[in-house]
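Figure S4 source data
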Amino acid sequence: MQPPRLWPQRVPQSPRRRDNGAMKPVETQFIQALREARTPAAVAEACDVLEHSGEAVTPAFGAALPAALHGHLQAVSAHPGFRLWLDVYFGRQPGRFRSPLQQPNFLYYPALPAQAWFSTPELPELAPLQRLIAPVREELLGFLAEDVAFRPYVDARASGDRQWGRLADSLEWSARHLLRREQWDEALVARLPVTRDFLAQAPLAQYPPHAPECFISRLKPGTELPPHHGLSNIKLTAHLPVDLPGGCSITVAGETRHWVHDDFLVFDDAFLHSACNRGERVRTVLIFDIWHPGLCGEERAALAHAIAVLDRVQSCRRTGAPS
């Protein structure tokens, strides 16, 4: 349930250390390519070359990489919010959470205010879509009336996890994904044209491969989700109500609320949150990730670029020996 961080919380600012020795030619070429790259695709191409060399990375490369990454990403945008995040992430400025209840597992963007709940009128890109809730719900209810296969939301690998072990590989909390890790379930969305069109208009938080995620979520009666933090504060979690029995609630940052028909329920899941179904039938909602409204277009594009680059570089580093 809690994916590993893709990069360290603090890295050395100096790219050289006396005991590191020299980088290999392929590593020197990678650092140069990173400095010159302007797109995530160009960085991915450089990673491919490094990986195909089949050589373990050197300590010198590990020491030079953070400064090269910082330089590459600094050139992406001069927006002060993005530059602040970049410097805090790379340890060049001190950083702290604005709220002790807001501690995302993956990425924290310090320029955003610590706000847990959002009303629909506060979301100018989502508010016009409120009129589509009823037709989406009608379509999904018809779909659910068929023999639909759902899968446990919590992977079986979490069985040893103290927090999520009870729900591991369990249909108590189940999902049917329309979109996950950049992959649409084309057969499913073809059966749900109204829902597909709705999602096409929604301000989905596009920073693959980690977001957006769109899925039908089902919580069986008697099920409680333990308090947990989500991935990041740059996106919000939006719920579109589908089937709401009585006795269902969700608590975010210590405040408990209930779903309402014909309105979205939106919150920052970077805050500590939990949910329960004390009703007599399954609770069903459509869940999807949207951009935080405090981010401008430049910040969104810069963050999507940064996440794609950092994810690819980290994946590349895992193919070699630890630096």
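Figure S5 source data
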Amino acid sequence: MEKVQGIGGVFLKARDPKALAAWYREHLGLPVDADQTFGALTSTGPGEMTVWAVHPADTQYFGPGAATFMVNYRVKNLDAMLTQLRAAGVKVEEKVEDYDYGRFGWATDPEGNRFELWEPK
């Protein structure tokens, strides 16, 4: 059985992404560059980074609906996890995206919350 290896990232929506990122940097000490809306929180080994990021309020990246956040889960084998979820009747998106830092897939829980799965390179 495939299992989540860790949290790959936490993503928030904001009316003003840069201002919200600056607030988190100032008040919580999150390592977000002054001109950015994302930062790496931890890195305990290759592919084990946890990313924190702010997206515009109108982003479609979180899927349809009014969700104001999305969690990215780090997995060892994305294809096996997606197959396992589909076999269990979970709503899984067909698309998988490949980047030089890993592969991504998306699914939705029974409450309608979209989540992202990341297999690091």
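The mean pLDDT is 88. Residues 41 and 117 are 18 Å apart (CA to CA).
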